[in-house]
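<instruction>
Derive structure tokens from the sequence
<data>
Labelled lines for chain and fold:
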Amino acid sequence: MYTKAFTATTALVLIAVLSACSGPADDGSKATADVAAAESALKPYVDAPSAFPVTTPLKSLPTGATIAVLDCGTPICGLFADLASAPAEALGMKVVRIDSGTTVDGVAASFNTVLEGNFDGVFVPALAPSLWERELDELNNEGIPVVTAGVIGLDPAKVVAASSGDKWSVASGKVMADWVVAKDGDSTNVVFYTTPELSFSATVEEAFSDELNRLCTNCAARVVEIPVAQFGTGAAQIVVDDLLGHPGTTTSVFAVGEQSIGLPSALKAADLSIDTLLNAPDPSVLAGIKDGSYTAGVGLDLAVETWTLIDALARAITGQDVDQAVKDDEQVIQVLTAEKLPDDVSHGWTGYPDFATRFVALWKEAQ
């Protein structure tokens, strides 16, 4: 039984009403989990990462081009901006970082800067399309290629590559549901934390819900919102309040790892212990998985993703098409537990430690 729940401001008021979601279905029927199907669906993502997305050599270098990379203010947006410099420099391009935030005014101001800046390409992570639809049309009209990461609902004809978008969001949501059912079986009682301001979050949640309902009839589940403004401040308390109101919860699932900043200490202070699964964990969350503060994550290879998107801009600027796997948003992902992570996760996780060498080999013959 999958139910929508509440925001931080209504948490305490609705605990009594929603406590019914912490147990079996309202009709008293028993949960029936298909653990074998969950384990089978999960298997391709457990022992090795998915395939490397780029295999076609680059024909021409975009030497002298300048690209804008927007920074929405979250740790992952910042990581995208940091990671973009190295591949751009290797290709002879310059990166200009533009702070956007996620508010209407902040995004509008950042795109004014983009449109006035004579850029050759633009990289936009995690901003809802409704905030910059007009600006995207202007960029299209000016022939300036755009790539995105973590943006849902864009017209694919308007961007060169929509990375970690709709298809990735569905894939990661399904993998997380598979993991929960494989672990908890008929005892599954799960909470999914979503963030409305991050457009991919709702798609991940929907895919998670659909897969959970397919695999685990009548399993208890609910959805709780964590606003992006609460990341790093009030998010941990939202989770603690929710879990205290639903003591039967077996697993907490996060649409993005940044929702859990500060959670381990908050759980300890509240004398709570629960399995945690986090989507696209950033370095701080990876460190938490490594030291046992979190249980597992569905790793998104942000390094390979960033280099892939810079490569896509280079191809668009020089008139070369991108690989089909890039068009299809085939991300490098893997289920990550402590034993699968290296000792140093300060720069994030990659399924391909030689990714830079792979890309340089594809670029070396370009003129």
User: Anything to note?
Assistant: The two ends are 58 Å apart (CA to CA). Residues 283 and 348 are 5 Å apart (CA to CA). The domain at 2-48+168-300 is CATH 3.40.50.2300 (Rossmann fold). The mean pLDDT is 91.
